[in-house]
Design brief:
elongated; Spore Coat Polysaccharide Biosynthesis Protein SpsA, Chain A; alpha/beta
Amino acid sequence: MVLPEHRENWSALLLMGEAAAGESAPGRWLVAGVPIIERQARAARIAGARRIIIVAESLPEPLATRLKDRAETLVVGDAAALALALQQQADDVLLFAHGLLADGRLVSAMADASGAALACFAASAPDGAERLDRDHHWAGLARADVALVADVAEGLGDWDLAATLLRAVDAAGAVRVDAGQLPLFDAEARGDVPLLWAMPADAGQALAVGGSLLEAEGSPPDVIERWVNRPAGRMLARLLLPGLFSGGQVAMLGKLLLLLAIPGFLAGWPLLALLAMLIAPVVDRAGRLMAQARLEPVPRWPLDGLAGAGLAAAAVMALGLSLPGVMAGLAAAMVALLSAAMVALLLVMMAAIAHWFRWRTGAHMDDRTLLDRRLALLSQPLSLAAWPLLPFALSGLWAAGLLLLLPLMALLAAVRLWRLLVAMDALLPRQAVHHKAGARAGLCG
């Protein structure tokens, strides 16, 4: 469906529910280590909310401090205080239901709606969705004019605020946004990512939803990333989610391990350095999964893929520089060093080609066609640099590993360059070409 044009100024209205300070309040249940009410606030902030209003009689510490420390967050105690607060703004209001866990794509779709709008399920609805009529269930998000919300809050009396607001928005002729029709393709995940939607009935269900967030990813073409790094990263993320570490801190640990591989090779600890290269993408993946599950900023370097390829290339060069001291014969040492230099150059070249294509077109080159996806079975620079070296490292044949790695890199680089030319040819317009020889032949005839 085509959504109405985006409206920049809107506020999020989050309802903590009764017994806000008690353990039974849905807003306090933890999902991926974050209380649901705080996760709602993060989702609203990411979608562009100018202001976040939380209706709660009281908030426990340290949750209260974390929420109130943000300048755009306002906490009010009841409906009367909400009505007073809304008199000072002209923004539309996006209502979040009690204990709702909504996908960021659904929140953004509602943020882009204009006027009264209800997120709904027109087909089969998941557990916890409230029925609107015979054919629709409420998906827990409603956008309304601020005057309507203020009027409902002011005259609420003993009625439930969420239920009354829902009925008022529906009666105002709200447009229904079908959550089941939202696009599922995620360019970062490089595949369809299932829509997250849940209304946990208790703290145990909320905990289970947190674990499922780690599975909500697309399937990358790289075989090592798909079958090794992501499964291992999910296992590590599950272990670290209840802890105090943020996803960004864990991801930076992965970068640090990759950096440590360089001095590790130079210091004469090649096995430990190679192990750091193998573990680094697993730790980095775990950190990214944790950040996505908690709606934290996903840590990225400038030119992230190219920077990772540069570090992998630097580690291979460090390995090549460490070999002359342990090899007999200058010629053999120089061949190993030259092989390392060529491998490092090809790694950076392949990453640069992929980065340039995405920068120019906005799409992954490996995702264009089925052939591209099949040729990208080993496309990550770190996977290409580390895993083929492992059997040689276990046998102590480092130089032989570099020598055999070079033709593999050359072949893959040639394939990537060929696919780049094919991709660019498909994008460029066809033009008629008149050869001079043919033109002369025509004139002579």
